[in-house]
Every structure is written in C-alpha cells, then in structure tokens.
Amino acid sequence: MHRAWSFARTAGAITPRSPARYRFRRLGDGACLSFPQGAIFGEAWIEIGEHTLVGERVSISAGMGPGVDLGPDSLVRIGARCSIGRGSHIVGHHSIDIGDDVFTGPYVYITDQNHVYDDPDTPIGRQWPRNNPVAIGAGSWIGTGAIILPGTRIGRQSVVAGGAVVRGEFPDHCVIAGVPARVVRRYSPGSGWHPPTLDTPLTGHLDVPTPPTLNPGPLTPTP
Fold it and tell me: Which stretches of sequence are listed as region Disordered (predicted)?
C-alpha cells in the first residue's frame, strides 16, 4: 500500500513534465502541484512561477466555475520559489498577485471576492459579490489559518500571524496580527524590529457597519 501510494503521489503531481501543464497559463520550470490536489479550475488564467511548491489538497481557482471565458489576462499569479501550505485555498475572480519567495502555512485562505449584504431582503448568498484585487509582497510569510480578504495589499518581507483576518494596506517589513489584523511590529534600519509608533497606521480597513447608538430614554429612579 505504501509503495502504491508513493507511486500515485509521483504520478499524480502536476509538473512541467506532465500533460496537465498545458491547461495553465504558465507553469514554471521546477514547479509542482502535489497530489492529491484540491479543486483546480480556470487554469488558463493561473500562472505559477519557477520552483514553486504547492502542497497537498490546495485549491486554486480562477472564476466562478469551469468553462467560463475570463478574458485575455491572467487572474491568479503566484511567483517563483513560493511554498503554499497544504489545504490552502486561493480563490481569484479579479486579480491575486503573490510575489516571489512567499511561504504560507497550511489552511490559508486568500480571495479577492466577498459577498455583500446591501439588500436586507435578499439572501446574502444570492446577492452579486464584489471584487477587489489582492497583492502579497515578495518574501512574506503567511501563518497557518490566516484569511486574506479582498482589497488587501501586504508589503515585502512581512509576516502575517496565524489566524489573522487581514484586509487593507500594510507596509513593507511589518508583523500583522489579530482579528481584524493590525501592525504589531515594524522594522526600521538602525533600530531593528519595534512596536509601531503613534503616527504609524496600525490597520487596514474592514467594512464593518457602525453599531447604532442606543437611547435608553430618561432614567427613572427605582422606588
């Protein structure tokens, strides 16, 4: 059984030497999508760079489903020498750019599309979603279970802590953590890594409605 499974993993991997490579917009030399793969479709709009390793059961998709014409440009671009942790999902509809040398832990979720809830009478799943491009800078690390939401731009050589829910724009050389995520450390030449100063933007933005102000009315004394 072990020999058979080892053979299946080797034969089932997608590499530049396998016929499945022709479905992709680009699959660089030395790249490998480990077997078993997750849900993969829209390959004609997916680019994967040289020597990038995609772990087992990773789902990478472009568009809402197979067989849809998504236009002339690629939608999901993963750079060279990246490592995508097992069980992760990269779901692109508009534009996802992952730079070179980006590593992720397992079960990371990256998407450029989100549901809306504008109409309170229509089920949220039936309302037309909104797209917002995502970019992750070269050399960054995305921790286990992190969620990268639409509209996120992460700078170069940055760290996203495990379990963070990230949306907004973040600078180079920072540590991002929390729900919602904020900058908890920055790197400055000469002083190294340190907590952000008061004039440093700590967070991106989340479309969270402001809760209504409660008006309890006049207070009546208790008899």
Answer: 191-223
